Amino acid sequence: MIPKLSPIGDKIFHHHPDQSLLSTNDDTQDYKTFYYRQTLDHFNYRPESYTRFSQRYLINFKYWGGANSSAPIFVYLGEEAPIDGDLEVIGFLTDNAPSFNALIVYIEHRFYGESVPLGSFDEALKNAETRGYFNSAQAIADYAAVIRHLKKTLNAQKSPVIVIGGSYGGMLASWFRLKYPHMAIGALASSAPILYFDRITPSNGYYSVVTKDFREASESCYETILKSWSEIDRVASEADGLSILSQRFNTCRPLNKSSELKDYLDSLYASAAQYNQPPRYPVSVICGGIDGASFGSDILTKIYSGLVALKGNATCKVNQPLNQTQTDKGWRWQTCSEMVIPIGRGNETMFPADPFHIKSFVKECKKIYGVSPRPHWVTTYYGGHDIKLVLQKFGSNIIFSNGLRDPYSSGGVLDNISDSIVAVRTVNGSHCLDILRSSASDPEWLIKQREEEIKIIKGWISQYYADLAALKVS
C-alpha cells in the first residue's frame, strides 16, 4: 500500500496546546461556497466529453484589494480529500492574504467531496467509464478552467495568481505552473515528491527516512522496534499465540494473523514520522513510551507502551473497524492508474524487508480495477528525469518546500534548480508543515521558512507588476 499523500494526518498526530492549527468559526464564515459547471473530459471531443458536473470551490473576499488594483489571487489546489479538511488546517493563505491584499480561493479536486461526476462517489468509482476521467491531468485542467472563470467573473484579468498545494496537491501545483504558466505566475509546492516515480528515487527512500527519524529520537527505541517484528512472529507461532498478541496489544478485534499487527505498527510509525510536528513530535512521544516501558520491560510490552503514549487510554488500540474514506478509495485508484510511487523496504531499515515488485503491484491493480498501472506516465507527461538539466531552462517561479523529517522528502526537490525554481527546506520539518496554520508556539526555524517563502512570492508579484507597468508604457 502506497502511503497517503495528504497534508493532514490522523488527529492523534495533531494535538496542539492552543488548538490554533484548527480554524475558528469566524474563519470559515468568511468563505462563500460556489459551484462551477465543469467539463468532464478536457481532452476529447466526443459527445460524452461535454458532460458537466458541479465542482466546488470556496472564496474569501475579506482581504482582497480588488480587480481595479490588480490585487493578487491565492489559489489552493485541493488534493485527494474533500476540501473541508484543508479549509480547517491549511492556514498559509489566510495567514498571509492580509499583507498581500489577496483573494483566497480553495478548489476541490474532482471525484472528492462534493465534486463528484455522475452520481455518488462509490458509483463513480465503480463505473469503469467514469473512473477513467479520474486523473491528475484532468484535475489541473479543472483548476485552469475555474481560475479562468473566476478572473472573467471578477473582471480580474490582470490579477496575478499564485497556486499553492501540499503533498499530492503540491505536485499538482508544480505541474500546474509547468503546464499552465499563463494562468499562474508562480507555485508553492509543499512536500511534493515529484521525483518518487519511475526509479528516480530509490524505492527504499521513504522508509529510510522513517528509520532515521526514530534512530535520531532514540537509538534504544530504534533497536526495540527493529527486534519487535521477529518477536511478534515468534509469539504468533506459539499455541494460542494470536490470542496472546490480541490481549497484549488490546486489539479491537481478535487478530487473524500476525501481519495485521505488523501492518498496523508499520503504518503508525510511518505516519508518526511523516507528521512529526512540533510541539508534540509524535516520534519522540512513541519513543518516550517505548524507552519508558511503563507496562513492562520485554520487547512487546515496550512496543505497547509506545502505542499507549501516543494514543492515550483508548478502549482498544489496534485493528479498529475499518471505515474507508473517499481518500482511502480514491487514492487506491490513483496509485493503481498513474500515481505509481514505488515505495518498498530493504534490509537496512528498522522494518521487515518488503521490496516493491512492480509485477505483483500490477497484478493486484488489475484484479481490483481491470486495468494496469502506467508507471512511466507521470515522468512522460510532467517530467522528472534529469530535472536540473531540463527545468533550469524550461520552468520558473516554483518553490519546492520540504522538511527533512518527512519520509516523502526523499522524493522531493531539495536543491535549487535555477534562480527562480528554488528549494526551501528545514532539517526538523515534517509533511506540509509550512502551509499549516501558524501558531504562537511555532519554532523559529519554521517561522523563518515561511518568511523565506513569502519573500520569494513577493518578489514574483513585484516583478509581475513591473512587467505589467512596462507593457502599459510601451
From TrEMBL:
Listed SUPFAM superfamilies: alpha/beta-Hydrolases
Name of the protein described by the UniProt record: Lysosomal Pro-X carboxypeptidase-like
Keyword Membrane in annotation: no
Family named by the database record: Belongs to the peptidase S28 family.
Entry superkingdom: Eukaryota
Organism: Senna tora
Keywords carried by this UniProt record: Carboxypeptidase, Glycoprotein, Hydrolase, Protease, Signal
A single GO molecular function term of this UniProt record: dipeptidyl-peptidase activity
One of the protein's GO biological processes: proteolysis
Name of a matching Pfam family: Peptidase_S28
InterPro entries in the record: AB_hydrolase_fold, Peptidase_S28, Ser_carbopepase_S28_SKS
